[in-house]
Amino acid sequence: MFATAVILGIVAVLLAGPVPILLSAARWPARSPAVALVLWQSIALAGGLSMIGSLLGFGLIPFGMNLFDGIRSLGGHLVAGTLPDEPSFVAVLMLCAALILGSHLLLNLAATFFRAERQHRRHRHLIGLLSQPLAEHSGTRVIEHDAPVAYCLPGATRSATVLSRGLLQLLDDDQLRAVIAHEHAHLMQKHHLVLLAFKSWHSALPWFPIANRAENAVALLVEMLADDQARRAVDDRTLATAIALVGSAHQVDPLGTDVELADGPDHPFDLVSPRVRRLITPPAPLPAPAVLAVAASAAALLLLPTLLLMLA
Amino acid sequence: MSSLGVLERLLMDVLWDSSEPLPATDLRDRLLTPAASVARRKPLATTTVLTMLSRLEAKGFVTRDREKRPHRYRAVATRAEHTADLMHEVLGTAPDRQAALARFIGDVTPQEAATLRRLLDSAPLAHE
Hints:
Chain A: Keywords: Hydrolase, Membrane, Metal-binding, Metalloprotease, Protease, Transmembrane, Transmembrane helix, Zinc. The complex is a heterodimer. Chain A contains 12 helices and 4 strands, in the order αααααββββααααααα. By secondary structure, chain A is mainly alpha-helical. Chain B has a 3-stranded antiparallel beta sheet with strand order 1-3-2.
C-alpha cells in the first residue's frame, strides 16, 4: 500500500507539472489534433485519479493491506466508532484530503455543467426572439449586430450556429461556408463538453498553473479539429483568410459602443495565428504508428492509477 | 423553430417597436399579420397571447403595468440591449464567464493581424 501510494504520488506530480508543460510546448499536436485531444483528456483524468488515489493509499495504510481491505476496515471502524490498532493522525488527514479533493472536483464539474446549461437555455431563448434564420443554410440564425461574430449554440434537441450581420458583411460566400462548416463541426463533435470539462478543472484548481495551460491547449486543438472539417468544404486559403479576417476585425473596427473587448491578461492566448499558419503551410499528419503510440499512452495513463490501486 | 417560437418572436417585435405599453387585445390585433397567420394557420385568440405573455414575463423579457385594467405589457429591455447582452456573453466580456461559448475565433493583436495579412498575401494561391 505504501509503495502504491508513493508511485501514485509521483505519477500525480508528473501529470500535474512536467508532462502537460512538455505537451503544451510540443509541435506534433497540430499535426494530429484528434489524438492529442484524447491524450490531454487522459492526462487530466489520470492526474486527478492518481492524486486522489495517492492520498487514499497513504490514508488507508493503518486500515489494511490493499484498497478493498482498507475501505472495508475503515467502514467497520467508522460504524463501530473505534480506531485502528495504530491510529495515525497523518493517515486521517490524508483520507480527509482525498475525500475533499474528490468531491470538490466532482461537485465543481457538476456545477459548471449546470450553470452552463442554464445560461445556454436563456441564451437560446433570446436568440430565438432576436434572430432570423438564414435562408440558404439550415440550422443557422442571423443576429443584427455589427461585430463580426460566429458561434455555435449547443442544445439537447436543436443546436444552432449564430452569425452576426457584421460577419455576413465581412465575408464572401465561400468564406461564410467555411465558417459555417467550422461551427457545424464543433456541434457535431460536441466540443463544448470537452471545453467545459477543462474549464471546470481550471476553475476547481485556479492556483494550479497547469490548468490554464491545459485549457488553452485544448481550446486550440478543438479549433484545429473544426478547421480540419471546414477544409473539406472549402480550400485552405479561403478558410485561412476567413479566420484572419474575423480575428483581426475586432482590432480594426472595435464593434461600436455596445461591446468592449476584454484585453489584457484575460485574453493572452492566441487562437488565431497558429491556425492560420497551419493552413498556409499544412504540416504532414503524424504517421499511423505514432498516432497509435499516442493513443496507447493515453490508454496506459488511465489504466495505470486504476490498476495500481486495484492490485495493491 | 416551432410555430410558438415564431409567434413569440413576432410578439416581442411588436412590443419592441411600440412606444407605449400595450394591453393583450391590442397585441393580438397587431399580430394579425400575414407572417403570424402562416405560423398559426388559425385566428389568434387573446388567451394564447396572454399565455405567451406570462411565459415571457416569467423569463424576464416582458413586464406588465398592473395599475390599469386590462394590464398593459411592455418589453423589459430594448432589442439592442438584449443583443448587447448576448454579444457580451459570446465575446467573453460578460461578468459570468462560466459558460463562455465556443465562438469562431479569438482576437489577435494588431501586430499579429498585420503579420497574418502579409502571410496570406504571400502564400501561393490554392488550386481551385
